[in-house]
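Morning run. Coffee first, then this:
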Amino acid sequence: MSNDHSTAYRRPHRSLKSKYKLSEALNQNETKSELVVTRKSTTKNLLVWAVILLMLLLLSSQQHEYNVRNVSDGDVIVKKVPEESENDANGESCLRPRRNSNAAVKSPLKPPFINLGMPKMGSSSLHNYFKCGGYKSVHWRCGERYCSECIREAIQAGLPPFSKCNITNIDSYAQIDRGPENLVQVNYLNEIVGGVPNATFILTFRNMTNWYMSMNNWQSIHSSEINMRQRFERANITGLPRGVGRNVSEFSHFYCEYVKRVREEVAKYPGRHELIEIDIEDTTVGWQMEEVFGTNHACWDKKNAAKHNGTVSVDELQRRY
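And here it is:
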């Protein structure tokens, strides 16, 4: 009986205990290996996502720089600055021309044609277009005087805008200002539109970056120290106070507000005035002009295009308002 008892409670064999320990150790090693593999996989995935995130940030940064890339000489080539998204009271873009819906009904329109656009926005092209079509056109000079001077004098005297210019039978006023210092179409817009009995007003458009670059690279033969853009900045213009006009965005905002004013003012005189809006950089502008004014599209050609290297600094493109 004692033999049976000792047999029933006999300790496990040492070799069996070793097997248990070995199996347990193997299981622990397998678990550790799985953890290491899992950690490595997680680390690898995190690195992949970090690289993807970095690439997205770089792409976003490039787009935020308005598609500007550096070149070896330190200049910056402007590919295209997005247009402002501001609209006028009718929800239409203030930096792109509206469709001239009236042209199909009332074409060809009759003179006088008065350009309310800005310098470096196609005034020379308009002047040559109307001359080519047989119209009598003036371009910033009204006879022996500057148009801006005689217009300002007449308005300040309470007279019709062109009454002191001493010229008659003019069909086209392709440019009535004398540069930024004498933007009568901006400073006396209400008086000009309200003081002319009947007229076809023209409002020209172009890409704001191209306009800015054109002014930045245009210098008068009388002043080699400052360019057209700097003259805008120094002049005190309605909607563009002195010191403003240092970058594309400030010019875009200025022209947008001016376009709104022109549209609202001309709209006050239905049946008396017409407003024709054109993009001078549109490849079909010649055909549009022919449809509206009746002069052959071949008469349209870009004149007085500024020769420049197509560069502008990053600072001048940054938004500061």
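The radius of gyration is 36 Å. Good start to the day.
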